[in-house]
Amino acid sequence: MSTSKNRSLVFIIIALLLTNIGVLGYFLWFKKPPQKPGNNDRHNWMINALQKDVGFTDQQIAQYKELNDDHWKKIKPMFEDIRKSKDSLFKLLSDEAVSDSVITQQAEVVAQRQKAIDLQAFSNFKKIRALCTPEQRVKYDSLVQRLMRKMGKAPKGEQKKEEKK
Length: 165
Known about the structure:
Blueprint (H helix, E strand, L loop, with lengths): L2 H28 L8 H16 L3 H34 L8 H31 L3 H19 L3 H9 L1
């Protein structure tokens, strides 16, 4: 090969190498990975909904934040308890000789803990409702119903799978 062809190939290889390094650098340093929605996102969504849909004032939002903080202090240990109860239930799978009454008893423990969580959540929603003016209550009730319908739905990908069946 001639020297000019070698130079051209070396130039092309260097250009491709620099381009690859540039793209890699972009993805590593400049492009932020999408974050999974967490409690903070849901909390901010609820604050925005209370302001926009219900018409909460700044004072009502401050009171909501206090109630919400108190609610999560109470409910976090309850979620841990239910997780442990479910772990205990499903550990029974490995016991060939486990009786139906033991399984039912353990499932009942899970159910009671879920009931406690639901009652705590209901109580929290009722306390938030008490912050509403009479005009805001109808809007708040509608918001809570929409929220409950959303919570009862399967994730979007799962909904499509169910529709195909």
